[in-house]
Structure formats: structure tokens, C-alpha cells
Amino acid sequence: MIIRPAKKSDADIVPELMLQAMEEIIFNFIGKNDIEEAIHFLTKFFSEPNNQYSFENTFVIEDEEKNIIGSLTAYNGDDLDKLRAPVLKYMKEHYNITLQPENETEGNEYYLDTVSVSPSHQGQGIGSLLLKHGIEFAKQNGYSQVGLLVDLDNPNAQRLYEKLGFLLGKETQLVGGSYNHMYINF
């Protein structure tokens, strides 16, 4: 397996993976529970630069046959407002949604926004490999902290993050959901 930076041409696979990790959030962004529209929304942003869901902020993991089986989207938490701005603008213009989501990162961290693994490869350590890659990337690029949100209703994910060294931070809200911020300091 290999982890590499995503390419724009990965847009035929990665947005579907991303949707697994944040389906309810994207449904709120588009104002309806429509999987096809949600994939279209994510594909648009994955394919474009300078936004939080861009290929520029994404790593993919490939199996031995070069099939993408997982993805990690992450960015400098200090850039959240700038990266989120085109998403909010598009929501307003195309869906008449004026949602102002809470900040998912407090800034001053490498924020792991979305970690997702193909259903056929879950339970094989792929998510852990992606998370470890994100942590190592943060270290190599001078970040002093890595952070993420974990859904309060997902104790299995929280246990995985704790095994990787994440500490439990404060509870936060995001688009109607309740999450714990978790972090690793270096």
C-alpha cells in the first residue's frame, strides 16, 4: 500500500469516500438528504483548489493494484475561515443555505477534517495508517498539534484515536451534531 497526495483526477473516487465520513453534515450543507447531490457537491470542491475539501488538502491510500481505498483530508486549522469561504458562498448561491457552521478547529493545529476508508477495506488498519500519516506530516511540517473531531455517538472511533495518542479535549457542536475535539501535542 502507498499513501500519496491526491490528484484532481481522483475525483471519481474520493468524494464518495469523504461522504461516508460526513454524510449528515453535507446533507445540511445542501439542504436535503440526496446522496447524488452530496457527491456532486463534494466532487466540485475536491476538484478545485483553495477550499477545505480540495484535492490539495487530501492524501489517498492505494492498494497493490493502485485502487484508492481510503482518504485523509487535512489542513492548517488557522486557514479554516479562508478555506470554508468558497463552500459557504456556493451553499448560499446554489442551495439558498446561509448556514454558519461552528469552527471545527480552534486553529493552531493541523486539523484532520475527514478520514474515510472504503467499506470493503474497513477493519484492516487503513484508517490508522492514514491517521499516522497525517500525524507524521504535521510533525515534519512544524505543527505543534494535530486535532480532529470525533462524534460523541462513535466510541469505537474515539478508542482508535486514543490508541494513536490523541487526548480528549472539549465537547463542541458542529452543524447540529455533538463532538469531542481530540488532539496530540508534539
Assigned CATH superfamily: Gcn5-related N-acetyltransferase (GNAT)
Spatial sequence of strands, sheet with the most strands: 1-2-3-4-5-7-6
Helix content range = 25-40%
What is the CATH domain class?
Alpha Beta
Structural class category: alpha+beta
> Which fold name corresponds to the CATH topology?
Aminopeptidase
Number of strands: 7
Tally of DSSP helical segments: 5
Order of helices and strands: EHHEEHEHEHEE
Strand content: 25-35%
How many structural domains does the protein architecture include?
A: 1
Q: Which outline best applies?
A: globular
Rg from C-alpha positions? 15 Å
List unreliable stretches of 5+ residues: none
Ordered list of secondary-structure elements with their pairings:
Blueprint: E1 2-5, H1 14-30, H2 35-46, E2 58-62, E3 68-76, H3 80-95, E4 110-117, H4 126-140, E5 145-151, H5 155-163, E6 167-174, E7 177-185
Parallel strand pairs: 4-5
Antiparallel strand pairs: 1-2, 2-3, 3-4, 5-7, 6-7
Helix pairs in contact: 1-2
Task: List key phrases describing it.
186 residues; alpha+beta; Aminopeptidase; 7-stranded mixed beta sheet; 37% helix
Structural summary, described in words:
This protein is of the alpha+beta class and 186 residues long. The protein has a single domain, classed as Aminopeptidase. Helix content is 37%, strand content 27%. It has 5 helices and 7 strands; from the N terminus they run βααββαβαβαββ. The protein has helices spanning 14-30, 35-46, 80-95, 126-140, 155-163; strands spanning 2-5, 58-62, 68-76, 110-117, 145-151, 167-174, 177-185. Strands 1-2-3-4-5-7-6 form a 7-stranded mixed beta sheet, sandwiched between helices. It is globular and about 40 Å long. The mean pLDDT is 93.
